[in-house]
Amino acid sequence: MSVRQSLLAILDQGPCYGYQLRAEFDRRTGSTWPLNVGQIYNTLERLERDGLVRKGDVDDQGHVYYSITDAGRDEVRGWLDSPVSQQGGTRDELPIKLALAATLPGVDVAAVMRRQRETSLAALEGLRAARPPSTTGGEDLAAALVADALIFRAEAEVRWLDHVASQLLAGAPHTRELTLSAQTPRRGRPPRAEHAA
Question: What is the pTM (predicted TM-score) of this model?
Fold first, then answer.
């Protein structure tokens, strides 16, 4: 998620100060991604350095207002006009954990998966219960859109866990275990795996 572009998109609506940007971000995203105010001010400093925003007036309470520049508006338009691409590889702990568990001797992978599936299903039910009702606009719509994305991801996680379970049940446990390699690793970064498109 791009904090930089999100703040610029909000500033495209009019000048704001840091806490105001935080409140607007929360209001427009259903408060699902908490931003701390330090992160906002650090981002504003970088945006100012890059010529995308400029500091403006200070009000009676000492709030420093930031406004977007023409270059900032161009960046917002480019961001909104460009699709979000999925990154190759994963930093998601769950697939890494299960891949390792499946290859380690003595690990009851079925038990690991069962506990994870129970937790994932409970999280899915919690997301469904907390989902705001659908509306045609405003804050409720923004919250519902983000909630739906979280629900769909949680549903996909449960489906993926079922898929992995069926694959693991198909093979004998000893055929997937890996022992430590005796081969000396090369120094430097490993080559990137190329995925067919």
Answer: 0.65
